[in-house]
Amino acid sequence: MDGSGYIFRAFHALPPMNNPAGVPVNAVFGFTQMIAKFLLDHRGSHIAVVFDASRITFRNDIYPDYKAHRPDPPPELVPQSR
Questions:
Q1: Does a structural domain hold residue 82?
Q2: What is the number of structural domains in the chain?
Q3: Tens-place pLDDT, residues 21-80
Q4: Taking CA 30 as the corner, what is the angle to CA 28 and CA 32, rounded to the nearest 5 degrees?
């Protein structure tokens, strides 16, 4: 599974939500809901979720314009994707 894609998708699909400390949680909530649904719909013994490690990867060496025009994530998403 593309964990980073799921987080981004969940962030934009749900309205802003905060925990009692005021930290945004809509992406985390949506991500866990999507994973739970996936697990109900797909039976198996293993699951792998992969997240982007950083902005610069080996892909940039292969193709320098890889994600070159992608904007920085919204500030409300940053604490949810760590």
A1: no
A2: 1
A3: 999 999 999 999 999 999 999 988 899 999 877 777 888 899 988 888 888 889 999 888
A4: 70
